[in-house]
Amino acid sequence: MIHFYIALNAACPVNFEFLNYTVITSRCKGPTYPAASCCAAFKDFACPYADEINDLTTDCASTMFSYINLYGKYPPGLFANECKEGKLGLACNATSPSLSQTASGSQSICNPSPLLMVTVGFCVLLFKLL
Known about the structure:
Protein name: GPI-anchored protein LLG1-like domain-containing protein
Number of helices: 6
Radius of gyration: 14 Å
Largest sheet: none
Order of helices and strands: HHHHHH
Pfam families: LLG1 (PF26578)
């Protein structure tokens, strides 16, 4: 069962305003918005921030989607409706944007996140209501 909670969230520690959105906007184009290209581009952009996006105590997910929609002018629900990999959400295997290696030299990997799709769905609902 999926529950949606509306609460006052803390500010996001990631400054999504100044990130480079061309990874999405250059590969996910209308009018057809091909799912394979759009979902791959979305994952390339979002997976490095999966922990922050899935933290429901912050406004990271809604902030990220606001900027994605601002720069890409995508139809509501595009990524939530097209990008599905299973009941656990989208699998992220990307490295951190700021550190490709940890101090010990091992690679930093994002874990698959079951909350990513819930967060995406929540954001889509918010955008539909606006």
